[in-house]
Amino acid sequence: YIHIINKADMAASKGLKILVGCKRVIDYAVKVRVKPDRSGVVTEGVKHSMNPFDEIAVEEAVRMKEKKLAGEAVAISVGPPQSQETLRTALAMGIDRAIHVEIPLAQLEKLQPIHVSKLLAKVCESEKPDLVILGKQAIDDDCNQTGQMLAALLDWPQATFASKIEPSQDSKQLRVTREVDGGLETIDVSVPAVVTSDLRLNEPRYATLPNIMKAKKKPLAKMSPDQLGVDLQPRQEVISVEDPPVRKAGAKVESVEDLVGKLREKGLVK
Amino acid sequence: FQASRAASLLPQLLLRRRPAPAGAFALLARPASSASGGLPPLTTEIHPGIKRGAFSQLTDADLSAFEAIVGGDHVIKDADEVLSYNIDWLRICRGQGQLVLRPKTTEEVSAIVRHCNKRRLAVVPQGGNTGLVGGSVPLFDEIVISTSRMNSLLSIDPVSGVLVAEAGCVLEQLDREAASQGLMMPLDLGAKGSCQIGGNLATNAGGLRLLRYGSLRGTTLGLEAVLPTGQVLDCLTTLRKDNTGYDIKQLLIGSEGTLGIITKAAILCPARPKSVQLAFLGLDSFQAVLDTYRLARRSLGEILSAFEFIDSESMRAVKQNLGLSCPLGEHSFYVLAETSGSNETHDREKLDGFIESVMSMDGCATDGTVAQDAGQFAHLWSLRERIVESLLVDGYEYKYDVSLPLADIYRLVEHMRTRLDGRVIRTAGYGHLGDGNLHLNFTTPKFDAKVLELIEPHVFDWVRDRRGSVSAEHGLGLKKSQYIRHSKADFAVRVMAEVKRLLDPNGIMNPYKVLPDE
């Protein structure tokens, strides 16, 4: 799949078309509980909201529109019927229209980044965005895979863990600052490209009332994995999900001798 | 500093913990006092007219007796440690208590009080010490009896919703325990991280959700207390209905520790709502606030769980003094309307309807937001819950808490603002609009007796003339006991004095508080 964009000066063009991925996850403030049968975590009746990194991605797309770098911003979510609420939040923040790829509940638990990236790749074929912005990882599975897989499927450049996105010096590419272990790395990528957002990219806005009302009227299209011709056969099987080990209480000692004695007991010193 | 959302988001994402409680009291390092050397002035200096009652002095024999009851570790005599028990949260009072006792059981409390009653030693019951009227600290050398060690949760019944706990349990911890059973505590206030349920009952604390869940007078099913003679009053029942005789616990609720020390309580907890939504609106007149409230009651009806208003001066304090950011532009008033219900779709629909009405109504809110996730929810609430904390940064705070007819609420703020123009840093008005309860605060860099003279008794007279209450929920404590007759008939006050004499013949239980000295 090759998509060629007019490489004219980005500032003069009518702006990039951006596709933003949003995932509905358990709200980060909720105390997650493991199901008694250890097959997963309790999601029934639990507060869900947009993945925080995706909020940041949505915010970036809206800001790029405001700066006239982008012309149209489309939000997409792969998930259950309730993902529509997540998309409404994106619309209320300033996204123009939304696409919901609805996954039936039976297949939801077994959905993996490989499936999501294939679905997104198919949508990219028809939507032809210039830039796809995804959250760097979802806070429920912490996979950090979808953006990278998508770029590989599309054979597009990728700029992950972005903390800044701006036009490059010659305005023909995007200059992305990435957060890496050693510090910050700045790279230029040509569009179309996949970028994943990191925490410091921006601070998401609150959805204002007028925008919340407008969001109800913005187009929200529904698609199914069958329509997109993507097979959702799981490649992995979750064997069990468990709580992390309970932290054992520490012990206070009265003197250095006691400390050394205890360390010896545990075989930590000879 | 800039308390940006991203900066607060990072540790939470990394640690996957609940966001820190919005309650200011748990996190706040005590603000620097206005007075010399960082300590507030002695209360006896501010109120030189109050004379020490005819109580005995502490002796070594008393100390031995107390040590025998609670053990040497829990008899605190060290001056530095005792000092913190002598200063109230607002740092406007400093007592001269020499001794703090920390009992673990009702029996210990009973033994202590019996001894004090026999010896005529004055005592002050103290829970979280978050009271705002100087009621929880000594004035002279009263002995502080702290309930902090009595912090066991005794039982929660998930079917009936009844929670039984010792008086020293911190409100927020009780709420967490209740949450694990799908329940919630029926009250919520900014001090939740530090206040204890015994103190909440003793002050009949109101808080943010009284509008929805009612007052502790309704939700407290039973309690156990130690009376000033040392006798244990066991009215601890978990029954929802029990009309057998006089309801004596109602005397203790709201008595501010002057009729006994509450040791256990049985509280009826409502079901924890599955869906909580929060709308935050910007309005430009107080009439718009009242109209919005009327709309909220009509369109949100049974799911409305809180309705708070904040004026522009309070918002300025929160922004300037604490660095919090407000997502809306500059407005004369802000409103927080919260809903709690059992069905998210249903509640969202109702909230959408309310918002549509609010936006189409002339002169109503044009600017506003709805919290999209728990982080936004907590941040928006912090703009209201941390106002008290932000005002303390100015220096010295004069705090008033009154009930008034709704239409008069902001008239009082405007009137006092004009009266104190140029003499104070700010006049802030905010509060539980749904309950007709205004919190009115003034700040100066240091305590200024002339400012106090301009405020009192004028503000209380203004309230009395409109048949309001001079203390809606904070109680009388030390600071307002002289004004009780502004809101209660003289005969009623005399009946109260009779009850006090009956239960506390030697007057040892939290003297100088609530009732005026006769």
Q: In words, what does this structure look like?
A:
- The complex is a heterodimer of chains A (270) and B (518).
- Chain A contains eight helices and eleven strands.
- With 270 residues, chain A is an alpha/beta fold.
- Chain A has a single domain, classed as HUPs (Rossmann fold), CATH 3.40.50.
- Chain A starts with 15 loop residues before the first strand and ends in a 5-residue tail after the last helix.
- Helices cover 35% and strands 18% of the residues of chain B.
- In chain B, helix 4 runs antiparallel to helix 6.
- At the A-B interface, helix 2 and helix 6 of A face helix 1, helix 14, strand 13 and helix 15 of B.
- Chain A: It is found in: Mitochondrion matrix.
- Chain A: InterPro entries: ET-Flavoprotein_bsu_CS (IPR000049), ETF_a/b_N (IPR014730), ETF_b (IPR012255), ETF_beta_N (IPR033948), Rossmann-like_a/b/a_fold (IPR014729).
- Chain A: Keywords: Electron transport, Transport.
Task: Please tag this protein with its features.
heterodimer; A: 270 residues; alpha/beta; Rossmann fold; nine-stranded mixed beta sheet; two-stranded antiparallel ribbon; 24% strand; disordered N terminus; B: 518 residues; alpha+beta; Uridine Diphospho-n-acetylenolpyruvylglucosamine Reductase, domain 2; Uridine Diphospho-n-acetylenolpyruvylglucosamine Reductase, domain 3; Alpha-Beta Plaits; 3 domains; seven-stranded antiparallel beta sheet; 35% helix; globular; electron transport (chain A); Electron transfer flavoprotein subunit beta (chain A); ETF_a/b_N (chain A); Rossmann-like_a/b/a_fold (chain A)
